[in-house]
Specification:
This protein has helices at 8-11, 23-46, 51-77, 85-97, 103-115, 131-135, 160-167, 169-188, 191-214, 235-240, 247-252, 268-278, 290-311, 316-351, 355-359, 362-388; strands at 20-21, 82-83, 141-142, 282-283. By secondary structure, the chain is mostly helical. The chain has 2 domains: 8-283, no CATH class; 290-388. The strands form 2 sheets. A two-stranded antiparallel ribbon has the order 1-3. The chain has a two-stranded antiparallel sheet with strand order 2-4. α2 (23-46) crosses α9 (191-214), α3 (51-77) packs across α4 (85-97) and α3 packs parallel to α9. The longest helix is centred in the last third of the chain and has 36 residues, at 316-351.
Length: 389
């Protein structure tokens, strides 16, 4: 895992005009933080948390966390898949337990974030306004870019579960954060321990784990796919954020139900969505074509190689590397042209309703060969870049 700092423009916080305070958010965060640093250590010192309290802490942490990542984020914000009503109801209930606003408001604002990413005036939690601002500060003030626009989330209002949660959000949130932990705590014989651990501390931990996606995931990590925005891939953050740490990939391919696209990348949200597809509760899982992924990675390799060659001292070796890089660029251009031609053939197969034949056709095999050629070319360009260092 690399840990490169954000680019110069993003590392210099932009000072914006002060706005009015958002007192409900200030009171909420002040109260939960104060209780977390006083009541929790006191109770842990003077009492003994039961095993059941720790179990419910883990259950509620993941239930509320996955309701944000799999539900609010990948389902509703980006429509990366479809979900059965029972799963959408789960997301509505435990998303309210995460206490991050209703589906309608959270997702509408998140869509604005993707549309206006890093814009200091229009991105609701722009990383260019500083680490604190993107982590929590943006929620403590009312700004023009935080105003709810019902046009952005109009498609979500067709879901009766979204409308129900939005209308009764406060009651649902109180029930899920107080009544439910109290009920399971009473049933397990540890009422107060469960309230403190699975109620209070779970809420505080889940808040900051989620907020890391808006803050640290735009500052700390690598950019293997694009430098067009501040988003980063970070393996450690992926562990803390239920798989959302592969943020550079996500900002380029936001419609993909995965963030960690490789089997070894920690993305429990991806596994959750895929597992429910096996029992029919999710469907239409959208995946970015492998060629597009490899193309983006190779383009970044070219950018790095060009930067290193430009910084290197002029000489015969560098001139030779420049020549090799130009040859690789020509090969890359030819590969893209061939891919476009094969995509047209694929489209013609679809028009002729030959999709079954397509799966075993020579065209498909040639497209897979092009994907593999991009992987090999990435290695060659990476080697060129290393030689220029």
């Amino acid at each position: 895992m690399s840990s490169s700092p954000a680019d110069d423009s993003s590392s210099q916080p932009v000072v914006a005009a002060k706005r009015s305070y958002n007192w409900p958010a200030i009171i909420l965060f002040s109260l939960t933080t104060t209780l977390a640093v006083t009541v929790f250590p006191w109770y842990a010192w003077t009492h003994d948390f039961s095993t059941a309290a720790w179990v419910w802490f883990g259950v509620f942490l993941y239930a509320s966390g996955l309701s944000i990542t799999a539900g609010y984020h990948r389902l509703y914000s980006h429509r990366a898949y479809q979900a059965h009503w029972s799963l959408r109801l789960f997301y509505a209930l435990f998303g309210a337990q995460a206490l991050q606003n209703s589906i309608l408001i959270w997702c509408s604002m998140h869509r604005v974030h993707h549309r206006e990413v890093d814009d200091v005036e229009h991105d609701p939690y722009s990383a260019r306004r500083g680490l604190w601002y993107s982590h929590m500060g943006w929620m403590l003030r009312d700004e023009p870019c935080h105003q709810f626009d019902d046009k952005i989330g109009r498609d979500m209002t067709r879901d009766p579960i979204v409308r129900w949660q939005h209308k009764h959000y406060l009651a649902i949130a109180l029930a899920m954060n107080i009544a439910l932990p109290a009920l399971v705590g009473w049933a397990s014989g540890d009422l107060w321990g469960t309230l403190v651990l699975a109620g209070l501390m779970r809420l505080v931990v889940n808040h900051h784990f989620t907020f890391f996606i808006n803050s640290l995931a735009h500052y700390w990590g690598r950019q293997p796919y694009t430098t067009e925005n501040t988003a980063r891939d970070n393996d450690l953050l992926a562990v803390l954020t239920y798989g959302e740490g592969y943020h550079n990939f996500h900002h380029l391919f936001q419609w993909d139900y995965r963030n960690g696209i490789r089997w070894y990348q920690w993305d429990p949200t991806k596994w959750w969505i895929a597992a429910f597809s096996w029992v029919g509760l999710t469907s239409g899982l959208r995946r970015t074509p492998e060629f597009q992924i490899q193309r983006a990675k190779l383009q970044r390799q070219f950018e790095r190689a060009k930067e290193r060659i430009a910084k290197a001292d002029a000489g015969g070796r560098i001139a030779h590397l420049q020549l090799l890089l130009e040859q690789e660029l020509q090969t890359f251009s030819a590969t893209l042209s061939e891919w476009a031609r094969l995509q047209q053939e694929k489209f013609e197969h679809a028009k002729q309703q030959l999709s079954d034949h397509w799966e075993t056709s020579e065209v498909r095999r040639r497209m897979q060969a092009l994907e593999e050629s991009l992987r090999y070319q990435q290695r060659r360009v990476r080697l060129l870049s290393l030689q220029a260092a």
